Task: inverse folding
């Protein structure tokens, strides 16, 4: 690969590909920061420069990685014991989750760790799960050093004890693979052994007929008893709870086919339906596998523990020791350094606290706290070292007690799933048909009656029905995934299709303060004027004021006199002799109403001594396409906005959301949860859209919770779906498409019923031959699957999703 | 027609071989990560590195 000469002239960091502002040259290459350079040096010395040839600028920028993140707690035996998977005197095995794995260069580097540190025996990555499995020599290095090594090359491990807890998904999947393998094997062989019977048209030597029959029994036994066992279990559990799920008619069908076939072979009546039986189970299992598809690299189950550190430094008898966070008790003195998270509600004892609550509220402006004030858990300290005294246990803190709410204990008990509704009617109707047809023949011939009764149950086995759902849903999930809308599982689609009211969180969900761009238009402001404006907006907690304060780069501060804030309008005050008014145009220039309505929400006007100077335009303050999205959604859904902030912006928001939407401000996390609950009590199906930990309760309580995030691998609270913020505008499309998918499934159901009617036509007459069943069954299954996939793809194309 | 017995035996044996190969593949974790190996195979030094590892 060439040495990217163009890049050298453009001064793009050789390591991470960012623009070099304070360029560092080394080895004829440009680097944007010391961190990137030192990683390059390290890789160069270790002869690992292929890292840079596999992909362009694969490195991870080290400028923004949190400072002061120490792995010293990994020296603590009690903590390391929970992380290490296996250890003896020679080697130790450990698995880390590394969110920043993103390309093949990452795999290359991480699998060659032994070249950098010779104590590493072996390292293996799992790209899709973003995990690294490391084996190292026990005596020569430590867990802490391994973590620090990963951190130093830009792959910071996200260590969390909850995440590392045994995940049984691979085991379940493995079992499913075994079952599919065995079912496929038996299905193929049984088909082979059934051909002589089908093709000989009854002229088969009775000896061979028996031989093949018994071989088929032998081969179908493992399929019936092992591969199909989950269906029987699920049907049994369902019946025990007096609730008919789709597995009930399936189990009934399977059991009847098996018993009747065994009886036919033993008594010599016929060949049985073994190929239909095994084929059916084989297809069903494949459907099941399709349905277990998930986005492995995303985690939908995070609670506050995922955000919190594993250990914390406590001060005991004037010496610092680390203690696991779950042993933190009331009254402990803790030390919090720059960039560390406050794990429990505490009182400030020492230090200048500047707490960034962006984790909790999405609001990134740090809040200052003084001696004696309570600092709530979840904030991140920016600046000096703090000494705090813990006043509440971690689990009882203001933020974390939300997780004690019942909403977090409930399991998904919804019983009105489309599948189950259909299963109920399907079972009753099938049984009714079977009994009627059986009774009709009973007067004439008891043999035919039994034959007809079982044949109806055989042919009515809802195999195609059971397949249509999984294939349509998983295809939709795949289409959503391509559109950066990631669902936790396929069940979410049905929930989304039923939504009739939507609740938005404000900060971080519909607004994006961090990435907003600020521009000034109008008469030029002098530096002094800018400083004066900056001093004035400092007094306001309004997000737009905060944004101006952050963006204006002036150091002078002026004293403000007669400061006054008018909620929803603006602020005014005197700086020296000059009166400034900052806010909406009507407020700044009374009587002047020629303002255009476009972008009104994000324009902040400035006037000095009654003369208009110009305005600040804050671009992207609200997420792109917000008002269009709201207009679309308003047509069919009931919208609510919940905000933890004050109601300064009520007017702006009301303009976007329209007068019919509800708006609630000053909402605590529990209030949000209770509000969702009250909507549900009024028989609403609620979709919650949030982003921060403060929405976690509401996301959990709602019928479907979507977390909006700037980067999908970032931590997001537990939810049903993760939506990449760049696709925020598309939300309405996604909701419509989930409805379309449910309609596709209904159409597939109707389609598969056609086959059932054809089969029933033969069955009730007592002329259902094994060959008819053997043809009808796979044809119906495969065609229904293709039908479902084709239709979802077709509608996705029409709705411009693929 | 006695050849049928041999054929049946042969066909089942062949099929069984594939079944056990499949079960072995699942058991050894080949279905757990279906992406990374496809990248790993393209790293040139990998063969060398594994022999180095064994020497250690």
Result:
């Amino acid at each position: 690969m060439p040495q990217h000469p163009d890049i050298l002239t453009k001064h793009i960091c050789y390591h991470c590909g960012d623009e070099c502002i304070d360029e560092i040259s080394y080895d004829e290459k440009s680097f944007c920061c010391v961190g990137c350079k030192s990683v390059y040096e390290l890789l160069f010395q270790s002869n690992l420069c292929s890292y840079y040839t596999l992909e362009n600028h694969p490195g991870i920028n080290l400028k923004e990685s949190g400072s002061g993140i120490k792995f010293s707690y990994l020296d603590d035996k009690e903590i390391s014991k929970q992380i290490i998977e296996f250890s003896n005197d020679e080697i130790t095995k450990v698995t880390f989750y590394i969110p920043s794995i993103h390309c093949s260069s990452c795999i290359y580097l991480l699998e060659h760790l032994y070249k950098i540190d010779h104590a590493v025996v072996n390292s293996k990555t799992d790209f899709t799960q973003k995990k690294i499995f490391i084996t190292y020599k026990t005596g020569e290095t430590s867990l802490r050093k391994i973590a620090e090594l990963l951190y130093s090359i830009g792959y910071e491990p996200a260590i969390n004890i909850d995440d590392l807890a045994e995940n049984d998904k691979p085991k379940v999947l493995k079992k499913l693979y075994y079952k599919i393998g065995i079912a496929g094997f038996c299905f193929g062989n049984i088909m082979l052994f059934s051909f002589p019977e089908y093709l000989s048209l009854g002229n088969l030597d009775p000896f061979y007929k028996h031989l093949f029959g018994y071989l088929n029994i032998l081969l179908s036994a493992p399929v019936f008893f092992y591969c199909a066992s989950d269906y029987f279990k699920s049907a049994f559990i369902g019946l025990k709870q007096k609730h008919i799920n789709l597995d009930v008619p399936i189990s009934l069908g399977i059991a009847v086919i098996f018993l009747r076939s065994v009886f036919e072979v033993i008594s010599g009546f016929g060949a049985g339906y073994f190929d239909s039986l095994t084929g059916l189970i084989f297809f069903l299992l494949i459907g099941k596998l399709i349905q277990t598809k998930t986005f492995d690299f995303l985690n939908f189950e995070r609670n506050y523990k995922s955000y919190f550190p594993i250990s914390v430094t406590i001060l005991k008898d004037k010496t610092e020791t680390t203690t696991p966070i779950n042993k933190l008790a009331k009254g402990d003195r803790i030390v919090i350094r720059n960039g560390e998270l406050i794990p429990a509600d505490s009182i400030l004892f020492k230090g200048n606290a500047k707490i960034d609550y962006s984790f909790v509220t999405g609001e990134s402006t740090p809040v200052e706290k003084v001696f004696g004030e309570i600092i709530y858990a979840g904030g991140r300290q920016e600046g000096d070292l703090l000494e705090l005294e813990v006043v509440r246990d971690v689990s009882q803190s203001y933020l974390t007690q939300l997780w004690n709410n019942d909403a977090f204990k409930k399991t998904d008990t919804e019983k009105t799933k489309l599948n189950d509704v259909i299963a109920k009617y399907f079972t009753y109707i099938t049984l009714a048909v079977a009994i009627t047809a059986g009774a009709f023949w009973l007067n004439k011939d008891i043999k035919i009656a039994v034959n007809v009764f079982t044949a109806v149950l055989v042919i009515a086995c809802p195999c195609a029905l059971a397949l249509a759902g999984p294939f349509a849903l998983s295809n939709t999930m795949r289409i959503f995934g391509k559109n950066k809308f990631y669902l936790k599982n396929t069940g979410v689609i049905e929930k989304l299709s039923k939504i009739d009211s939507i609740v938005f969180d404000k900060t971080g969900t519909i607004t994006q303060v961090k990435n907003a761009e600020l521009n000034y238009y109008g008469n030029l402001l002098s530096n002094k004027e800018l400083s004066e404006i900056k001093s004035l907006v400092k007094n306001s907690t309004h997000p737009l004021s905060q944004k101006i304060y952050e963006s204006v780069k002036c150091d002078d501060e002026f004293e403000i006199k007669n400061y006054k804030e008018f909620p929803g309008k603006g602020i005014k005050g005197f700086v020296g002799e000059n009166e400034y008014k900052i806010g909406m145009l009507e407020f700044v220039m009374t009587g002047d109403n020629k303002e255009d309505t476009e972008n009104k929400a994000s324009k902040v006007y400035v006037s000095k001594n009654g003369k208009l100077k110009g305005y600040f335009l804050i671009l992207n303050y609200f997420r792109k396409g917000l008002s269009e999205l709201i207009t679309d959604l308003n047509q069919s859904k009931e919208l609510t906005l919940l905000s933890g902030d004050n109601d300064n912006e009520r007017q702006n928001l009301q303009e976007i959301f329209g007068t019919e939407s509800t708006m609630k401000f000053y909402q605590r996390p529990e209030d949000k949860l209770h509000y969702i609950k009250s909507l549900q009590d009024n028989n609403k199906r609620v979709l919650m859209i949030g982003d921060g930990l403060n929405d976690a309760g509401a996301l959990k309580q709602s019928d479907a919770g979507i977390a909006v995030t700037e980067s999908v691998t970032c931590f997001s609270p537990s939810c049903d779906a993760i939506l990449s913020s760049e696709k925020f505008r598309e939300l309405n499309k996604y909701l419509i498409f989930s409805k379309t998918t449910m309609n596709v499934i209904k159409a597939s159901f109707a389609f598969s019923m056609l086959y059932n009617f054809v089969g029933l036509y033969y069955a009730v007459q007592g002329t259902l031959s094994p060959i008819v069943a053997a043809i009808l069954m796979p044809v119906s299954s495969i065609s229904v699957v293709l039908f479902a996939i084709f239709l979802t793809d077709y509608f996705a194309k029409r709705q411009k999703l693929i | 027609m006695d050849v049928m017995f041999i054929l049946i035996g042969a066909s089942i044996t062949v099929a069984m071989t594939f079944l056990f190969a499949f079960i072995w593949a699942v058991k050894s974790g080949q279905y757990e990560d279906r992406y990374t190996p496809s990248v790993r195979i393209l790293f040139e030094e990998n063969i060398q590195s594994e022999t180095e590892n064994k020497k250690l």
In short: Confidence is low (pLDDT under 50) at residues 1-8 of chain A. Residues 72-164 of chain A form a domain with the Alpha-Beta Plaits fold (CATH 3.30.70.100). Residues 330 and 392 of chain A are 5 Å apart (CA to CA). Chain A touches chain B at residues 50, 104, 107-108, 111-112, 114-115, 121-122, 124-129, 170, 173-174, 177-178, 181-182, 185, 188-189, 192-193, 205, 208, 215 (CB under 8 Å).
